[in-house]
Write a structure and sequence with these properties.
Layout: E1 15-16, E2 27-28, E3 33-36, H1 44-53, E4 55-60, H2 64-69, E5 79-82, H3 91-105, H4 111-121, H5 123-138, E6 145-149, H6 156-167, H7 172-187, H8 190-199, H9 202-208, H10 213-229, H11 232-239, H12 244-254, E7 255-256
Parallel strand pairs: 3-6, 4-5, 4-6
Antiparallel strand pairs: 1-3, 2-7
Length: 260
Amino acid sequence: MIDRLISLKNSVNLRELGDYPAAGGQVIAPHKLLRSGSLSELTPQEADWLRAYGLKVVVDLRSESEVAMTPDVLAAGVEYHHLSVYPFTNDSLVAKISRHLRAKFDHRINPMAEVYLKMLTDPHANDVYRALFTLLLATDQPGQSVLFHCAAGKDRTGVGAMMIEGALGVPEATIREDYLLTNAVFFAPSEEVKAALKTGASDLVDRMNQNAAETGCYVAVKDLIDKEYGDWTHYFTAQLGFSQGDLRQLRRLYLTDPEN
């Protein structure tokens, strides 16, 4: 089984999405999708290791000021794309979206959960995640990894991971677990995290998140997708504007048969 946590000393929350179950009995192909926090503390040797691992494309979801202060350390030949999720389109539109979401999901909304829902509905954020999927579709060779990241690898990256995993047909329970694993990575003893990530971390995740605000963020996102779109594949086509052919191509590129 693939190691979920990639243990580079100077990485932040660097994780492999390969081997997660997906549509049609397949799994996400290893060495294709990576998620992480900042790459600014990597050594040149660690950056070279990632390139050898298959890293081809990096998508940086951080703001301009974050990138200016702590730029990524990347090996030669790795494509870099800066696609800032923030700021949202404009205050009046955000206020309108917020009123709509509060009216429908007020029992779920806390300030951070509201930001998550804006990431799913704001036109600028939609353009950013649409561009991320476009890069995924363009990275069409086996073993070429796309890494998407923000600062901690939790919020902007977490929403992007939900979108990608949803489009690939990853089960809801696994999408939730992968999102909540960030808490375990940051707050549980390292050896416990490594063991749990190899075997499936449901118990650890549940224990780490019994009262965590992040659980509310995930539930708010799930409510929005279920009630407004029905499922993630309809979000992919209706909200982001991709075709069914794009969805089939995405799955062809990023899914594989599980090893026996």
